[in-house]
Amino acid sequence: MTPVVFDLDGTLIDSLGGIARAANALLAEQGLAAVPERQVAGYVGHGEHIFIDRLIADTALDAGDRAALLARFMTHYKAASRNTPLFPGVAEALARLKARGVALGLCTNKPGGPLAAVLDGLGWQSMFGAVVAGDTLARRKPDPAPLLHVFDRLGGRGVYVGDSPIDGATAQAAGVPFVLFTQGIRTVPVQDIAHDAAFDDFADLPGILDRLAG
Q: Which CATH fold would you assign to the domain 16-81?
């Protein structure tokens, strides 16, 4: 059957609140005011290095302390990741796909440390046949290399499911269909993201995948 690879943050897990708490814990340590969650959403998706650069640019954090600030943010980020909730219907959808023999993969820009905390917290150590974190390879999404690496390990190309323009661009670069989850960490209109199908309820995902497999 056609493999299915998922993004993580904003696709399977509702992680924006935890990421915002981690950022604001760092700001509080520096005696600075918190930033709103909707602002943090604009920092997410390209990995921790761009995240901290955007946070520094928007606040009074000292760019000269970047390395130390990133290390402290990662400590808070990993702690916040341990209790990240799933979006409604995710567990059931993944169970249905696995019961049908679909090979599942994970391709995320989330660093390996916080990713491990999420997978451990959810009991997902064996959920996916292949996993690539943001620091697994030398390149990250939207470069297609991480996604293609996951598909190669699953035995063939299939469908990518994500929530952001980065995910859409990654799928397009990899030459695979993209299914957009519209309730994730999305900062642009749905119509501005190239996609083959879209959904807002995970109960609809298996049927969408069947139609794409055609």
A: DNA polymerase; domain 1 (1.10.150)
